[in-house]
Hints:
By secondary structure, the chain is mainly α.
Amino acid sequence: MMWVLDELKKIGEVQPEVINRLISEIRRSSPEIYKSLVIGAYVDGKINLSKTAELLGVTRIELQRELKEKGVPIRGPSKEDVMAEAEAAKQWEE
């Protein structure tokens, strides 16, 4: 079955909109699978906590509470996260 993933990756490189539609369909029809995909990406360090919360439609605090209850380790913000938040705060003040 790994060949399916390989083919999806190839399609995503050429036609990312097809993969986006597929992900939207998974989110709509199988929310638990979608949630597992998003949390898996967080655990693997591919997305940060804020992006994870955004994709799941919850607040960062709610997500932290849920992850903690499930025993999922909470990573601290990366240097890039801190810099992005500082830049956003600077723009907010302007």
